[in-house]
Amino acid sequence: MCNLYTQKKSPAVIADLFRAQLPANFNAGPGEVYPGGRGIVVRDDGGERIVEAMT
Predict the structure, then answer these.
(1) Checking phi first, is residue 24 left (phi over 0); if not, alpha (psi -120 to 50) or beta?
(2) What does the pLDDT read at residue 36?
């Protein structure tokens, strides 16, 4: 299976778009997202939106 998604924006731009917090130690960047690989998600944590890299 080839890559399904390409993330062209930086995590900071994604956080700004969704009005989410970007953790200080966040180190994922733009690039291709492969099945089973890490991708950037915005999730709700107690009423706050947080940018996180998940598998």
Answers:
(1) alpha
(2) 81
